[in-house]
Structure prediction request, 98 residues.
Amino acid sequence: MTSNTDINNPVHIEKENIRGLKFPDEDVLVSKDEIKIRNAELERAMKLGNLEHNKIKIVFEDSEGVKQVETTVWGVTDKRVILKQGLLIPIHRIHEIR
Prediction:
C-alpha cells in the first residue's frame, strides 16, 4: 500500500477505525510555533465539542500516512486527544484541526 503524506489530501476514516492504527513516536510538526498553534486549536476544539457538540476535522498521521477524521473532541490531556468511545489520538501525530 502506498503511504499518503499529503496533508492537503488526507484519507477520510471513521473514528471507530482509529483503535487499530499505529502511531510512530516522532512529532509531525517541527516548529515550536506550529506546536503552539496546534495546542491552541485543540483547546478550542475541546470547548466547541463540550459546549456546542460541534464536530471538527482532525488531520493526523499514523504509520501508514495522513488521515482525517470528523468527530467531537471530548477532552485533551498533555499527550492525547480523547474522542467518544474512549478513542485516543496522540497529539504529536496531529497536523492540524479544521
